[in-house]
């Protein structure tokens, strides 16, 4: 295009020199024609802008992260005017399109159409535009290029990915559950006098020696085996590029942990802030779809601060009475640390799933806490356990 501009300008200068030195009908006509070229190009681009149409379609409006879905679009020319150069540019920050690129140039003959079908993959959970973002057109003489935003984008509702895993980073979920049960039992051991029929394996020999009679352990923690999954719904960023990746990974992690418990028939409950502290449960795998749908509808907000989460959590005895807790968040502050301390004070083993690589929580003073750091774009099984 730059070369064509240089050629046009040189010819126009020569025409000006020609009419200055010689004149004549041919010279003036050549000058007038070259002078009108930019105006004709502008009118042509304006006509293409108004007459050209794009139709695009996604196989389904509700899609899941990393799930390829069929995507098709059509470039349509319904008029007796040839469109010589059309390029379409796609949204690429949050989605990818296979087998197509932004550099392909299409030419549409009069009353014709071009159709393309491929696969589209969304990267993050949320609601955002996908498909064709911008359209670029050029004139016949390739002097000017106009790029404008597509007026009819596809607005997709993307659900989080459901991952089946037995581990998070270096943490085996089965080991974490067993460790919490052991710690809870040791902390909640009560004793009473032994009566015939009690399990002899539960005899507390040290207390029996001190009291002079057989004493048996009474595990008060046996009725408190529910595991709490605390999902942080605080939105810290203003731009979609800032908050979509961590929010996607938070829900992906919470769902992966919940799905593990559901498959292994482990009693668990998920807690997150909405208008109040919301509690979701899953009893078995066959009911997990309902739980997944509820988790997919979770809304993140800058109003869901850790101060509100701390206040709401400390008033819930069902949460504080859990055997352990998974705390999943992407921002660490004083209120988050206070929540961790109150959980530990109530005898909970805590696994912190921190989504991010900066401002990593300092858990050096917490004896029953395990920290797992996950990048927003990393595999759940490849996090770093600290």
Largest sheet: 7 strands, mixed
* CATH superfamily heading of the largest domain: von Willebrand factor, type A domain
User: How would you classify the helix and strand content by structural class?
Assistant: alpha+beta
Total number of helices: 9
Spatial strand order of the main sheet: 18-17-16-19-20-21-22
- Spans with pLDDT under 50 lasting ≥5 residues? 220-224
Any idea what the radius of gyration is? Answer: 33 Å
Q: Tell me which CATH architecture of the largest domain applies here.
A: 3-Layer(aba) Sandwich
Strand fraction: 25-35%
| Overall number of structural domains | 3
Name the shape in a single word: elongated
Q: What is the top-level CATH class of the largest domain?
A: Alpha Beta
Which whole number gives the mean pLDDT? Answer: 86
Helix content: 25-40%
Q: How many strand segments?
A: 22
> What is the end-to-end distance?
56 Å
**What fold name goes in the CATH topology slot of the largest domain?**
Rossmann fold
Explain what the structure shows.
The radius of gyration is 33 Å and the shape is elongated. It folds into three domains: 50-159, Sandwich (Immunoglobulin-like); 167-182 and 224-385, Rossmann fold, CATH 3.40.50.410; 189-221, no CATH class. A hairpin with a 3-residue loop joins strand 17 and strand 18 (277-281). By secondary structure, it is α+β, with helices and mostly antiparallel strands. The strands form six sheets. It has a seven-stranded mixed beta sheet, sandwiched between helices. It contains nine helices and 22 strands. Residues 220-224 have low confidence and may be disordered.
């Amino acid at each position: 295009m730059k070369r064509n501009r240089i050629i046009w300008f040189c010819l126009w200068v020569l025409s000006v020199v020609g009419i200055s030195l010689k004149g004549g009908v041919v010279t003036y006509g050549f000058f007038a024609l070259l002078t009108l070229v930019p105006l004709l190009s502008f009118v042509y681009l304006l006509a293409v802008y108004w007459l050209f149409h794009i139709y695009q379609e996604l196989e389904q409006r509700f899609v899941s992260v990393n799930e390829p879905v069929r995507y098709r679009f059509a470039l349509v020319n319904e008029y007796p005017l040839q469109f010589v150069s059309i390029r379409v540019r796609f949204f690429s920050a949050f989605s990818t399109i296979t087998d197509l690129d932004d550099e392909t140039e299409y030419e549409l003959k009069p009353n014709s159409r071009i159709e393309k079908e491929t696969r589209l993959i969304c990267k993050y959970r949320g609601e955002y535009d996908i498909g064709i973002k911008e359209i670029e057109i050029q004139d016949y003489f390739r002097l000017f290029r106009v790029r404008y935003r597509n007026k009819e984008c596809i607005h997709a509702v993307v659900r989080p990915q459901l991952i089946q895993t037995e581990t998070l980073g270096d943490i085996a979920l089965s080991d974490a559950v067993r460790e919490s049960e052991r710690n809870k039992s040791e902390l909640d051991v009560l004793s009473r006098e032994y009566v015939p029929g009690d399990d002899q394996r539960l005899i507390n020999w040290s207390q029996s020696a001190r009291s002079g009679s057989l004493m048996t352990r009474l595990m008060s923690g046996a009725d408190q085996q529910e595991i709490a999954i605390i999902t942080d719904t605080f939105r810290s960023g203003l731009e979609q590029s800032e908050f979509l990746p961590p929010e996607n990974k938070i829900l992906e992690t919470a769902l992966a942990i919940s799905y593990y418990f559901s498959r292994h028939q482990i009693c668990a409950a998920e807690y997150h802030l909405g208008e109040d502290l919301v509690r979701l449960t899953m009893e078995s795998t066959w009911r997990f779809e309902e739980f997944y749908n509820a988790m997919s509808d979770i809304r993140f907000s800058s109003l869901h601060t850790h101060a509100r989460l701390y206040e709401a959590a400390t008033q819930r005895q069902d949460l504080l009475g859990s055997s352990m807790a998974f705390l999943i968040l992407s921002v660490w502050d004083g209120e988050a640390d206070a929540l961790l301390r109150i959980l530990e004070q109530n005898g909970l083993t805590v696994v912190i799933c921190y989504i991010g690589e900066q401002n990593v929580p300092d858990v050096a003073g917490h004896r029953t806490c395990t920290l797992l750091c996950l990048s927003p774009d990393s595999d759940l099984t490849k996090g770093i356990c600290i």
